[in-house]
Automatic annotation (TrEMBL):
Organism: Hymenobacter cellulosivorans
SUPFAM superfamilies recorded: Dimeric alpha+beta barrel (SSF54909)
Domain ABM: 2-92
Pfam families according to UniProt: ABM
Protein name: Antibiotic biosynthesis monooxygenase
């Protein structure tokens, strides 16, 4: 299972526009093959900063979404509302019992 976090800082006056985009697309994203979870977080101290938290069966599933027509609509519209560059990263669970990572620890 791959977890993807995307932290986005919006122009304060554009937050409502972003929320409309997210609400219009969230169920479509959740129904994308390989997507197991999607939620939106708002920063506790900076109200125009949001994070998406999603879980994917694999990096391939996430990459397929990122090449989809849906992403091609959602991301450019969202990106136009930014006040700063986004920070995005993907992580796997860590620990000796974890088998999710494609990397070997040996």
């Amino acid at each position: 299972m791959l977890t993807r976090i995307v932290r986005m800082t919006f122009q304060p006056e554009k937050v409502a526009d972003f929320l409309a985009i997210f609400r219009d697309s969230e169920n479509k994203i959740r129904n994308t093959p390989g997507c197991r979870h999607l939620e939106l977080w708002q920063d506790a101290d900076v109200p125009n900063v949001y994070c998406t938290h999603s879980r994917w069966d694999s990096a391939t599933d996430l990459d397929n979404y990122r090449r989809s027509a849906l992403f091609g609509q959602v991301w450019p519209a969202t990106k136009a509302l930014f006040a700063a560059p986004p920070l995005a990263f993907s992580v796997y669970p860590a620990g000796p019992e974890s088998t999710s990572s494609p990397l070997s620890t040996t």
